[in-house]
UniProtKB/TrEMBL annotation:
Residues 56-120 form the GIY-YIG domain. It comes from Cuscuta europaea (European dodder). Pfam families: GIY-YIG (PF01541). Residues 28-39 have a biased composition (Polar residues). Residues 40-53 have a biased composition (Low complexity). PANTHER family: STRUCTURE-SPECIFIC ENDONUCLEASE SUBUNIT SLX1 (PTHR20208:SF13). This is GIY-YIG domain-containing protein.
Amino acid sequence: MMKLLSSTFRSLKPIRPVTKLKFPSSLPPSESLQTDSFQPPSLLSSPPSSAPKSKSRWSVYLILSTNPPIKTYVGVTTNFTRRLKQHNGELKGGAKASRAGRPWVCACLIQGFKDRSEVS
């Protein structure tokens, strides 16, 4: 049975009604955006091509198990896509502590640390 994350971790933010964002009158009304239609950028996408290829940038991540009881795991890596596949058993090398919670999904990913000590 899958449970919504929002039912396990209640939001502390007040609930606001959906509002339309207004753009200059030169745009047709069909191009107005609703705040509930925002799609965040993909967490699994590659860093921009302008990023230095010789230096790995470190990330800290929080993953959640999708099986009850909900478990969490925090880790650091230079390649989140590979690391999540390891946690889910698709690739060799996942953490022993994350075996019981498979499958895992990303809850939070913070990128851009210059070295491992900056992440910790």
